[in-house]
Design goal:
Blueprint: H1 2-8, H2 15-34, H3 44-60, H4 66-84, H5 94-113, H6 121-144, H7 150-166, H8 172-200, H9 209-230, H10 237-252, H11 259-263, E1 287-289, E2 300-305, E3 312-317, E4 319-320, E5 324-326, H12 329-337, E6 347-349, E7 363-372, E8 387-390, E9 394-402, E10 408-420, E11 429-437, H13 441-445, H14 465-480, H15 486-497, H16 515-523, H17 528-540, E12 546-552, E13 556-558, E14 563-567, E15 571-579, E16 583-586, H18 631-640, H19 666-694, H20 700-714, H21 725-735, H22 740-755, H23 763-794
Antiparallel strand pairs: 1-5, 2-7, 2-14, 3-12, 4-5, 6-9, 7-11, 8-11, 9-10, 12-15, 13-14, 15-16
Helix pairs in contact: 2-3, 2-6, 2-7, 2-8, 3-4, 3-6, 4-6, 7-8, 8-9, 14-17, 15-17, 20-22, 20-23, 21-22, 22-23
């Protein structure tokens, strides 16, 4: 009995190896089953188990040719999969089941030839079950016939990660179990290789060594997986970037030309950061990809004290690339200013400085005081649209207008993000005076459509068939509504979109589809990202500048505390449309319960005194004294400037003709170069320390001889046990003729030191000889090591 137990725990290509590899494959299949792609996949586990058993039998049967084994396995897998396809229960016999699927297959082939869609659920279920069999069979065959170890783990892990990428919900439990079993599998295979080397050298092994080794591996692997599982899962890229900045800050002081950069760098976290939508109190800065179901919490992110209900804008997006949105405002500012980094292209604004705005007709000052209820890793400060003044220092990401005198002037009407100059921590409070719109419908209808060049990037559309389809739908809708002006067209599209159902748990769009086109023509339900994006693209298709905006809806008003409670669950996106003389105007195409549709008067009205009835405006209306603003001066700004086009950015590339010469960001390069060099240096020091420890306590000749023997082994010139030191030196001299005398002296010194009684040796001379031989062996050792690594990674092992 003990012999059987001991045999089981021998980590060769036996029962233990098959068990661990089978569990890995079953966990991958389980991960697919738990993703609930389609009903019927729950039978994949039993089908995969059959493939694991058949593969083990065929792989162990060495006399069975591989081709015959694969053909037999395929037929057996097909029969086993058909056995578990959930066909009509009235089909009792196997012949009936085979006949039914054969008829369905013929029909599917005919449909494919005519270009029709194949929507046969039973055939799809059969294909999934058969793939489970092939995957399980291939895993064991590759392990036992081709001796795949690491590559088998990589194959299984890649399939599991691919499934996790697209699965909603994500089955995390099977992922952690797979990670644990994969580590144990690699531990056993490492021990098996060592054991093979020990057996080849006829070395005695302690009893139950394999069991003790396996037990130690279980403890180590379980500890690693447990620590990984307990690590925080919601760390944003912004927080990682701040951590990297703090880690590299001491190195900055030793780098050239960084003093000026450090002086005004302040707190970091305002770079090329990508934070997923709905990830706590964070938004992305540069890129957003449109995906599937939306996830959000009910945590409070903002508390806003304001005289009326508004939306709290955080960032704006201009470029649509067919998969999502990009914010190119920072890149344009970097091109125009020609700074060494994109962060230096941001404009610092001190408290109470006024941001000069243009097109301010139909707007009034609006003061809000906002308190952050969560730390914002993105450092974005939400506020009502068109801020004038801030109570805290901010960094503004905006474009520029070039005057007729070639003076570069900031265009704060084209601002995308407002960053806090310091950390945006929990309980951070700031006040903002914004210019909110109270314009009437008649004024918007009469607005000019002679747009300045800086608005051209808000007309950008990809040159795809999907955009042409969206443009055709847009023109069809506005024509049917009789809309002629830009405002009427926007209202017609807004009303059309609000008729679709709201659903924040939609599936992800197909990989080869445009997500907005898929939403408008196929899915026809979704959440704010899709409603807002659709309206922006349909307006652009008719030459109306619009942008996609992210932030938060109004929130719930707390009458006792006179504040709006803004939660993560109402993180929102909406379209803003530009009207000449009136600026960016908000529309609301999303039919969700938490949104508020803008209400505008039909025509201009006389100013009324609301001091006796402040509730006509909103909670706390009339209680905030607004600062005076020189609107005439703001309006003169747009009229006096002759604008010139600002470089337009296409996805992933800058225009060759318009883009300025590339600027090398020296600081990040040198900083990361220093970090990499420091890591390499620490690794070298660690290896050197281990070598010194290996030969500590030996006499000079023994230490030199042992070091040369170690390098020779690394170089593929290992000394055999039956050779004397002189014979080993002669063998090395054949590979290194120039070191023949040096090697002879080292061998004689070692022999004399070990067996001579009164021999005096010169330690300095021995060390010099060792150094001369080492300089010849080191390059060969390193070259052989790299060749071995590349060979193991790239060359398949075609073993029978």
């Amino acid at each position: 009995m003990l012999q059987r137990v001991r045999a089981f725990f021998q980590p060769s290509y036996g029962l233990l190896t098959w068990t661990l590899a089978s569990i890995m494959a079953l966990l991958v299949v389980t991960n697919v089953v738990e993703s609930e792609w389609v009903e019927g996949f729950e039978r994949m586990r039993i089908v995969a188990l059959g493939g694991l058993v058949v593969a083990a039998l065929f792989a162990r049967w060495q006399a069975l040719p591989a081709f015959i084994a694969h053909v037999l396995s395929l037929f057996m897998g097909l029969a086993w999969a058909i056995r578990f396809v959930p066909l009509d229960p009235r089909l009792d016999g196997q012949v009936d089941r085979w006949t039914d699927l054969l008829i369905r297959g013929i029909a599917a082939i005919r449909a494919a030839k005519t270009g029709e869609r194949i929507e046969d659920y039973y055939l799809f279920s059969l294909a999934g079950l058969l793939l489970a069999w092939i995957f399980a069979y291939s895993s064991i065959w590759l392990l036992m016939r081709w001796r795949w170890n690491w590559r088998l783990v990589m194959l299984n892990g890649s399939l599991l990660m691919a499934n996790l990428t697209y699965a909603i919900p994500k089955p995390i439990a099977s992922f952690w179990l797979f990670l644990l079993v994969a580590l144990l599998f690699l531990v056993t295979q490492t021990y098996a290789q060592r054991q093979h080397a020990w057996d080849a050298g006829f070395l005695e092994q302690q009893e139950w060594l394999s069991l003790r080794y396996l037990w130690a591996g279980v403890l180590a692997c379980f500890s690693l997986v447990l620590m990984a599982a307990l690590m925080p899962a919601n760390i944003t890229n912004a927080q990682l970037r701040i951590f990297g900045e703090n880690l590299s800050r001491p190195i900055d002081f030793f780098l050239p030309d960084n003093g000026a950069i450090r002086a005004d760098r302040g707190q970091q976290g305002v770079g090329n950061v990508v934070v997923p939508n709905g990830n706590g109190a964070n938004f992305a800065n540069n890129t957003v990809q449109l995906g599937g179901a939306r996830s959000a919490t009910n945590e409070v992110v903002l508390e806003v004290k304001a005289p009326s209900a508004e939306y709290w804008r955080s960032n704006a997006w201009d470029l649509y690339d067919g998969k999502g949105w990009q914010n190119t405002t920072g890149d344009i500012a970097w091109q125009v200013r020609r700074t060494s980094t994109r962060r230096e292209a941001l404009t610092p604004i001190n408290p109470d400085d006024t941001l000069t705005q243009i097109d301010t007709n139909g707007r009034e000052p609006f003061t809000q005081t906002i308190k952050l209820m969560q730390t914002r890793g993105d450092q974005q400060l939400p506020a009502a649209t068109s801020p004038l003044t801030w109570s805290v220092p901010v960094l503004v990401q905006h474009t520029f207008i070039i005057s007729d005198s070639e003076t570069m002037l900031p265009n704060f009407a084209d601002s995308a993000i407002y960053f806090n100059q310091g950390p945006a921590n929990r309980d951070f409070e700031y006040s903002v005076v914004s210019l909110i719109s109270n314009v009437d419908k008649q004024s918007l209808r009469s607005a000019s459509t002679d747009y300045p060049p800086w608005l051209q990037r808000y007309l950008q559309l990809p040159d795809t068939q999907a955009m042409r389809n969206i443009g055709g739908l847009s023109r069809q809708l506005t024509t049917a509504a009789g809309a002629e002006t830009a405002y009427d067209k926007a209202v017609a599209l807004e009303n059309y979109l609000r008729q679709m159902p709201y659903d924040d748990q939609i599936p992800a769009p197909p990989a080869d589809a445009d997500p907005i086109e898929n939403f408008l023509f196929n899915l026809r339900r979704g959440y704010c990202d899709y409603f807002a994006g659709s309206m922006v693209l349909m307006l652009r298709a008719q030459g109306i500048p619009a942008r996609w905006v992210q932030g938060y809806a109004t929130g719930d008003y707390d009458a006792d505390r006179q504040v709006y409670i803004v939660r993560d669950s109402i993180a929102h996106s909406w379209p803003e449309v530009y009207f000449m003389d009136y600026g960016w105007i908000r529309f609301e195409p999303t039919p969700a319960g938490y949104v508020t549709v803008p209400i505008r008067p039909d025509g201009p009205a006389q100013a009324e005194d609301n001091s006796e009835n402040p509730d006509d405006i909103g909670p706390n209306a009339g209680q905030v004294q607004q600062p005076a603003t020189d609107f005439d001066a703001l309006q003169d700004l747009r009229e006096n400037y002759q604008t010139t086009p600002i470089p337009t950015i296409e996805p992933q590339a800058l225009p060759v003709d318009d883009a300025p010469p590339p600027v090398v960001e020296r600081s990040p390069f040198w900083r990361w170069l220093a970090i990499i060099c420091a890591i390499i240096g620490m690794v070298i020091l660690l290896l050197w320390g281990l070598l010194q420890r290996e030969f500590r306590g030996l006499r000079p000749a023994a230490r030199a001889y042992g070091f040369i023997g170690l390098l020779a082994r690394w170089a593929g010139l290992e000394q055999r046990a039956e050779r004397t030191p002189q014979e080993f030196a002669s063998e090395l001299a054949k590979e290194m003729p120039g070191q023949r005398r040096t090697l002879r002296r080292l061998a004689d010194a070692y022999t004399a030191e070990q067996y001579g009684s009164h021999v005096r040796l010169d330690p300095e001379e021995i060390e010099n000889d060792r150094a001369m031989v080492s300089r010849t062996l080191w390059p060969r050792s390193i070259s052989r090591g790299w060749r071995s690594i590349v060979k193991q990674m790239l060359r398949p092992r075609w073993r029978r």
